[in-house]
Amino acid sequence: MDDLSGAFAQAFRLIAGFDPDLLEIVTLSLQVSLSAVIVAGLIGLPAGAAVAVMRFPGRAVVIAVMNAMMGLPPVVAGLAVYLMLSRAGPLGDWGLLYTPSAMVIAQTVLVAPIIAALTRQAIEDLHGDYDEQLRAFGIGRSGMITTLLWEARVGLFTVLLAGFGRAIAEVGAVIMVGGNINHVTRVMTTAIALETSKGALELALGLGIVLLVIVLGVNALAGLLRMGVAGRAHA
Amino acid sequence: MTKRTLCNILATLILSLSLFGAAARADNAFILVQSTTSTQNSGLFDHILPQFTEASGIEVRVVAVGTGQAIRNAANGDGDVLLVHAESAEVAFVADGLGVERFDLMYNDFVIVGPSGDPAAVMGMTNASDALAMIAESGSAFASRGDDSGTHKKERSLWQEAGVDPVVSSGDWYQETGSGMGATLNTASGMGAYALTDRATWIAFENKGDLVIAVEGDDALFNQYGVILVNPQRFEHVKSDEGQAFIDWLLSSDGQNAIGAYQLDGQQLFFPNAK
Amino acid sequence: MHWQGFCAWVLPGVPMPDVAPRITEPEKFDGPEVLPVSGRELVVERDGRKLVDGAALTIDQPGVTALMGPNGAGKSLLLRLLAGLIAPDHGTVTWAGTAPDRLRASRVGLVFHRPVMLRRTALANVAFALKVSGVARVERHDRALAALASGGLEHLAASPARVLSGGEQQRLSLVRALAPGPQALLLDEPTANLDPGSTLAIEDLIVRSAEAGMRILLVTHDPAQAQRLADRIAFMHDGQVEAPVSADSFFNEPASAKASAFVAGRLVL
Questions:
Q1: Rounded mean pLDDT of A82-110?
Q2: Is residue B30 within 8 Å of residue B58, measured between CB atoms?
Q3: Could you tell me the CA-to-CA distances from C69 to B228, C145, C226, C237, C265 in Å, in that order?
Q4: pLDDT on residue C18
Q5: Residue B6 and residue B135: Cα distance in Å, rounded?
Q6: Which residue of A41, B111, B239, C38 sits 20 to 30 Å from the alpha carbon of A234, by its own alpha carbon?
Q7: Second CATH level (architecture) for the domain B28-107+224-272
Q8: Shortest CA gap C197–chain A (Å)
Q9: Are B13 and A34 a contacting pair at CB < 8 A?
């Protein structure tokens, strides 16, 4: 297929040429999505673990909502964040709309439920094995949560990666709250959307290949790190 | 990974995150323009904005969406300047007190594009609504924006003139993409459908496939762009000085010449007509 | 009885690991009181079945009390009740007269049938137990090392706990339970499925702890082990506990028909 080989050639030219615009876009993509994953992790990991460990009325509802939020359409998340950050919205005074921070917030909204739901699953499995032993040590609830999070660290690493994958591949939310402004809020996916709308399909596909390579690279790096962690913990 | 390296990575990332906000706040010399995909996709902004920035020191950040969404965003105060092409909506925007004043800026025109096979036999016609009536009669596929954009508004007025309500055939021969001009052209190109598009986007569009211009030159296809400063009395954060400077420049001979000088494939895409 | 003589007596012909020089005394007790550990009129009901049905047991006397009985008698459940891990449907558990609380949990050591190791080194596993029991950071390392040494495990200090053998893991979990200096020790079949060497090492630790004055409750299915270690034997069946008697009288002149059937290997629930 002509389009496809052209796209690969295009991708190769983009990477080999160290195109400064591309570099800027890639850097911003990584910055935004990594920041979002970190913030979402700071929220989702303890929240998921807390739900896994605690028993309270309405817990089943919370779990159902968390699981459902995993399928939250990015555009809906984007719209919600837009309405919050718009000058007409409750947080409009912060002036964050059409900035990378807004994109981080939108991606955090998307990713935090994924991290929370998957963390709950992982910690709940572990909790069954560890609960009595940890309580026999005299550990409290917060100690239980932090200990289980640390014990599950290898699996949770994969959870964070899943969140990162969702964040960096997402377009609907960031284009709405970021505005796809050149040199300010243009990331890989919104650049791809733009080139597609210009009918520049080869370039769009080329950028898509670059995105794939980057995600692959991040996963490979994470895999190496995880092997290091797992090697030490022999989990 | 030791705890210390983890902490370092975390701290670095959080720092870089907080720097986003700082950068956005510290650098005040930029304005936000709500505009349309046609101006962005055609490359016009890439051509004229650096000239303005060089002359004024003011950076221009463009959010390019459909005209309808651009107007709604501006009505929420999310922008300093509105640059779109839907005159009646723009007039209403000013009348509602959301904008200061509307200025004619430039025009281009719409064209009806279609497959070279021309199943509706409209090729070469100069009356757009007659052509649409024939497309409807022949049941040939037509791809519509369906997104309340300036182009979509124009298309609806043409259908009205033709005495056809295409929406009853939606999903049949009338396809509402609900997307931007580029996405709609991709659809038309893919399925061999007719479509109404602004000429600038059409010329810049790279995935024409089998599509060619079928109808052009009708006065009804005239496409006027206007520019409006969002009302700083309504939204106190609006950077009225910088925004007004941008509008003044666009309407000045410098700005008008810059618009007229922009060409793609040897064709002039926009015709300045500020009064 | 000295531990080497003890080993030679239990398992003649089995080569003894030379751990004698490494042995250090178990930690001396300090901190809040938990003795006596006592349960009264305990009832645990699950799905309409009374798994524990009016059981009572008090751990007060120094030495080893073996808890014996057929499978399903409720022994593990009783152990968890006394440890404060589960709440009874009826009856009360008290430590030194008041309800169990987690601040005193490390004063009641607990070792499970299946060791639960944290994903970190053997040393860090012990240090973790010390940390939870409130031992200051500066003391933890040395005390954890000393605890490992008391179980002959100091050469494994830097090994990840989860790659240790089953026997090593069980020894480590006993050492870990002993490290904070508990007054009472509850052991749930700690040597089930272990090889003779590991069994010996664990029994040795139990004996030394008992000699140091610790109150130990040992759930076991092994009559020989009970005879080797136990000062008293409490017999449990049908969710109830018979009054503890000496090991000799338990095996030679059982107090009840069920105990007698159990000893003869004829009691199945």
A1: 93
A2: yes
A3: 89, 37, 12, 6, 11
A4: 45
A5: 64
A6: A41
A7: 3-Layer(aba) Sandwich (3.40)
A8: 25
A9: yes
Rounded CA-CA distance B6/B202 in Å is 51
Confidence band of B193 (pLDDT split at 50, 70, 90): very high
ipTM for the predicted complex comes to 0.81
- Chain C residues inside the 8 Å CB shell of A143: 132
CB C183 within 8 A of CB C215: yes
Instruction: Look over chain A and give the mean of its residue pLDDT values, rounded to a whole number.
Output: 90
pLDDT digits over B59-87, tens only? 999 999 988 899 999 999 999 999 999 99
Choose among A96, A97, A197: nearest Cβ to B180.
A197
User: Distance from CA of residue C241 to its chain's centroid?
Assistant: 18
Token duo for residue B225 = 């762009």
* Closest Cα in chain A, distance from residue B163 (Å): 31
In terms of Cβ atoms closer than 10 Å to its own Cβ (0-12, 13-18, 19+), residue A87 is buried
Alpha-carbon distance of B234 to B113, in angstroms, equals: 41
- pLDDT band of residue A91 (cuts 50, 70, 90) is very high
pLDDT tens sequence across A126-163 = 999 999 999 999 998 899 999 999 999 988 998 999 99
Q: Which of B12, B63, B234 to mutate to test the interface with A (most CBs of A within 10 A)?
A: B63
Q: Do A228 and B1 touch (CB under 8 A)?
A: yes
The pLDDT, as a whole number, for residue A9 is: 82
- The DSSP bridge partners found for residue C235 are C68
Lowest mean pLDDT of B2-16, B254-268, C15-29, C73-87, name the range: C15-29
Give me the CATH code for the B108-221 domain, please.
Answer: 3.40.190.10
Q: How many CB atoms lie within 10 A of CB A214?
A: 17
Among the residue ranges A19-28, B93-102, C196-205, the one predicted with the least confidence is A19-28
The answer to whether the predicted template modeling score (pTM) of the entire model surpasses 0.80 is yes
Residue B224 has pLDDT above 60, yes or no: yes
Rounded to whole angstroms, how far apart are CA atoms B246 and B256?
A: 12
pLDDT band at A231 (very low <50, low <70, confident <90, very high): low
DSSP state for residue C20 in the 8-state scheme: G
How far is the alpha carbon of B75 from chain A, nearest alpha carbon, in Å? 9
The three-state DSSP-derived secondary structure of chain B is CCHHHHHHHHHHHHHHHHHHHHHHHHCCCEEEEEEEHHHHHCCHHHHHHHHHHHHHCCEEEEEEECHHHHHHHHHCCCCCEEEECCHHHHHHHHHCCCEEEEEEEEEEEEEEEEECCCCCCCCCCCCHHHHHHHHHHHCCCEEECCCCCHHHHHHHHHHHHHCCCHHHHECCCEEECCCCHHHHHHHHHHHCCEEEEEHHHHHHCCCCCCEEEEECCCHHHEEEEEEEEECCCCCCCCCHHHHHHHHHHHHCHHHHHHHHHCEECCEECCEECCC
Cβ contact C110–A136 (<8 Å): yes
**Residue A82 exposure: Cα atoms within 13 Å on the Cβ side:** 21
Judged against a pLDDT cut of 90, whether residue C256 lies above it is answered with: no
Instruction: Let me know the angle formed at the C-alpha of C22 by C18 and C25, rounded to the nearest 5 degrees.
Output: 125
Residues 6 or more apart in contact with residue C12 via CB below 8 angstroms: none
Q: Evaluate whether C220 touches C237 at the Cβ level (below 8 Å).
A: no
Chains C and B touch (3+ CB pairs under 8 A): no
- Partner residue facing A235 (CB), from C80, C110, C162: C162
Residue in C105, C112, C162 nearest the CB of A138? C105
Residue B9 has a pLDDT of 58
The pLDDT of residue A77 is 94
Of residues A123 and B14, the one with the higher pLDDT is: A123
The domain limits of chain B are: 28-107+224-272, 108-221
In the numeric block, which tokens belong to residue C168?
């090593």
Query: What are the structural domains, with CATH classification, of chain A?
Result: 2-234 (1.10.3720.10)
